[in-house]
């Protein structure tokens, strides 16, 4: 069952790319590289790595997505690895245990639940593209420890619009 959780600002480092559903790995597969980059600089992740969806245009199958790793305190970026902050605010959140290819149904259920609750997203739509303030998929399972994707745990956190 989805919950509404208040989160503070959360610093992270990440990379961004414009991809399609079939080229997801171009961004998602860089999470390990970011973790290694942090380790070389004496930093450890301060939470689960995530994908942040900035823009979603499903009719054209184009997405602007970030792969990010949270850090305890801001870290300067380098090259195409940048430093940023997830915005504070109220998020609708739900957890999923199982294969990531089942997330689409979980996302649909979360969107439907929010509509039934009369909640508004921190999202604007322009020319068929959804621009999200903060829409996250957090990967709580380390694939090196649990290679079976059917046993993975993923959290969704979608930022709600600020109350009027």
Automatic annotation (TrEMBL):
Domain AraC effector-binding positions: 1-161
Name of a matching Pfam family: GyrI-like
SUPFAM superfamilies: Probable bacterial effector-binding domain
SMART domains membership: AraC_E_bind
Protein name: GyrI-like domain-containing protein
Organism: Nonomuraea deserti
């Amino acid at each position: 069952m989805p919950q509404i959780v208040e989160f503070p600002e959360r610093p992270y480092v990440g990379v961004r790319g414009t991809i399609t559903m079939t080229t997801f790995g171009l961004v998602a597969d860089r999470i390990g590289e970011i973790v290694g980059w942090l380790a070389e600089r004496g930093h450890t992740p301060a939470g689960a790595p995530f994908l942040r969806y900035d823009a979603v245009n499903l009719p054209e199958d184009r997405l602007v997505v970030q792969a990010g790793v949270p850090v305890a305190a801001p870290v300067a970026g380098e090259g195409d690895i940048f430093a940023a902050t997830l915005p504070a605010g109220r998020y609708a959140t739900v957890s999923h245990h199982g294969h990531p290819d089942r997330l689409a149904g979980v996302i649909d259920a979360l969107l439907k639940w929010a509509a039934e609750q009369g909640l508004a997203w921190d999202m604007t739509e322009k020319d068929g593209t959804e621009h999200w303030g903060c829409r996250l998929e957090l990967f709580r399972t380390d694939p090196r420890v649990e290679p079976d994707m059917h046993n993975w745990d993923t959290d969704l956190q979608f930022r709600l619009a600020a109350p009027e």
